[in-house]
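Lecture 7 notes: from sequence to structure.
We start with the chain below.
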Amino acid sequence: MAPDPDAIARCVLDTFDSLPDKRKPRPRSHGAREWVPLAGIVLSKGNRSLVCLRRYACLCP
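Predicted structure tokens for the same chain:
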């Protein structure tokens, strides 16, 4: 059985929330906030446990 999509989203958001502030968008001097796309890689262990990877390599030329 596939993991619940809401549980996957919750796993990614919880991992993002646990990151230090320096890794998150900041307010700019004129009050607008920075924004970034949010994506996550989630591994499913068996039928119950989800793990969101926090580190991944960039294979850029």
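Points to note: The radius of gyration is 15 Å. The beta strands are 42-45, 49-52.
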